[in-house]
Amino acid sequence: MSDDPETARQIEELAADDRPLLVLDVDDVVLEFIRPFPHFLKSRGFGLTLASFRLTGNITETASGRLIEQPEVTALLGEFFDAQADWQSITDGAEDALAALSDSAEIVLLTAMPHKHRVVRRAHLDALGLPYPLLTTEMAKGPAVAKLRGNKGRPVAFVDDQPSNLVSVQNSVADAYLFHLMADNSLRAFLPPPDGVRVVEDWRDGAPKIASALGL
What we know:
Strand content: 15-25%
Shape: globular
Helix content: 25-40%
């Protein structure tokens, strides 16, 4: 598991902070993704069927019925992220929860997306009133969370909807408090969380548990 040098550069730019650390995924944790994305696809002539929790193999061209391949999926995701301000809203309860937690924790947003989309996402988060630092990564999230924590041993909580990211952080920061939060709980059947991860239904359920874990 290697670091993403651009992510490391972004971390270096952050102001020093020794408060408890809360690291959050963005899509389907802070911003809606899986609800608006099918509407975006429909506007481009495609349809999404979630027969499994992956996009490739589940997106069809509406006119022909053709399943599209990975390169086309990647291109559509890029278009979606370029236009995210038109589609992505704040997940239910996130704004209030983060405002309360930010009084006594350092909150950092860590999103797995190509770095080229960072400027657009930063502007959209600012417009939504979510001023927390944003890091992008094109590699595993675990090393980034370890680097964010620093060497002071401060408590860390990490929230994501993707089990692979939770496992990555579990492997890099053994004592991190891990939370599985999904904007659309109907998809949980596809994504059972790994051992050692706390499942929360939404931000109202999760915020007090995160605060307690971090000793806030």
